[in-house]
Amino acid sequence: MPQPAATVGIIANPASGRDLRRLTASAGLYSSTDKASAIQRLLAAFGACGIAGVLLPTDMTGIAAAVLKASQGPGAREQHWPALQLLDLPLTQTVADTRLAARRMVEAGVAMIAVLGGDGTHKAVAAEAGDVPLLTLSTGTNNAFPELREATSAGLAGGLLASGRIPPSLGLRRNKRLLVKVPEQGLCEWALVEVAVSPQPFIGARALSRSDDLAEVFACFAEPHAIGLSALCGLWQPVSRQDPHGAWVRLDASADQALLAPLAPGLLQGCGISASGTLMPGIPQRLSLASGTLALDGEREIEFAAHDTPTITLDAQGPLTVDVEAVLAHAARHHLLAVPRGHRLHPATPC
To answer: Sorted alphabetically, which PANTHER family does this protein's record hold (predicted)?
Structure first.
């Protein structure tokens, strides 16, 4: 029996790629026009894979409005875009908008959520998504969790998976995460990439981009080509997404050895490394500082004092994501994107 046509969600954070690091470093700008264009490319790919509907939240920057206008044009009809439904949600222009949109999509029973944003956006969606898979697209500043890829090919992979043509065991990847607990504050948060410990006592402007503001970095995974705080582990003690363990480094300006690391786009700093090691799953790690702040995926979120006992624990219960490369490799081996004569996209089919 054929499966019913799937509905998917798309969440594009209007604020991603537009933060303070445009002033403190040389980060580029990912505009609302760019995001609307990427969504249109996703819709074309989803339509080619037979996705029936797409849920898209409204926003105050014109992303949804531009996509809605394009969906009513001849190009969308020719490409058989999925039916577009706008989620008209109360907007606060904070991360609460992202979390509410994700929650509504899960309640609506979407097969997948495509996320356009940086590490923080993906963390917010993952917090609400449960086991609904995420299709990750990078539009933020220091993007380690969402990999940089073109929306069309990513959309084909996501569409094939959401339409049931790819076995979940092949096309989905369970990610690691870092659990951050401060019992005295009743806090239990988590990060998808890294947790940085800073001696700065206040959250302040949130972003960390100076070596003097760093004491330790704990990472789920750390790739040598990464930009951001995880690069400290990636260029010193690299660990892959597939490895069961993580990594950590401790910083000290007076250390004998210093690592030249890209803490933000165009911002290279020498960081003294005094110690490093492997982060094993399930073992809570105490901090070297008695007080300071914790940055989760690049932004300070938690202040802790001398009477607090924060711990950081690696586990394997992070979100499910679409493995784009694995899906498209399987599609190529089995010719899943082949269309028969008579199909609307076959070159011999009359217009």
So the answer is: ACETOIN CATABOLISM PROTEIN X
> What pLDDT sits at residue 65?
96
Which backbone phi and psi does 113 adopt, to 5 degrees? -125, 120
Q: What is the DSSP string of 81-114?
A: PPEEEEE-----SSHHHHHHHHHHHHHTT-S-EE
109-126: b (≥16 Cβ within 10 Å) or e: ebbbbbbbbbbbbbbbbb
Residue carrying the six token digits 């940089």: 148
d(CA 60, CA 179) in angstroms, rounded, equals: 33
Q: Between 318 and 207, where is the model more confident?
A: 318
Long-range contacts of 202-205 (CB under 8 A, 24+ apart): 202/293, 202/303, 203/293, 203/300, 203/301, 203/302, 203/303, 204/300, 205/20
Which residue shows structure tokens 């809605």?
68
Span 194-223, average pLDDT: 92
Let me know: does 31 contact 154? Beta carbons within 8 Å: no
**β-pairing verdict for 299-304 and 292-296:** antiparallel
Q: How big is the chain, counted in residues?
A: 351
**295, 307 Cβ separation under 8 angstroms:** no
Q: Are 274 and 236 in contact (CB under 8 A)?
A: no
Residue 16's nearest CA partner among 85, 63, 71 is 63
Beta partners for residue 174, in sequence order: 320
Q: Is the pLDDT of residue 19 over 80?
A: no
What does the pLDDT read at residue 151? 96
Q: Give how far the C-alpha of residue 273 lies from the chain's centroid of Cα atoms, to the nearest Å.
A: 28
pLDDT at residue number 142: 65
Tokens, residue 328: 């498209």
Q: How far apart are CA 347 and CA 187, in angstroms?
A: 58
Q: What is the mean pLDDT of residues 338-349?
A: 80
Is the Cα dihedral 342, 346, 350, 351 positive or negative? positive
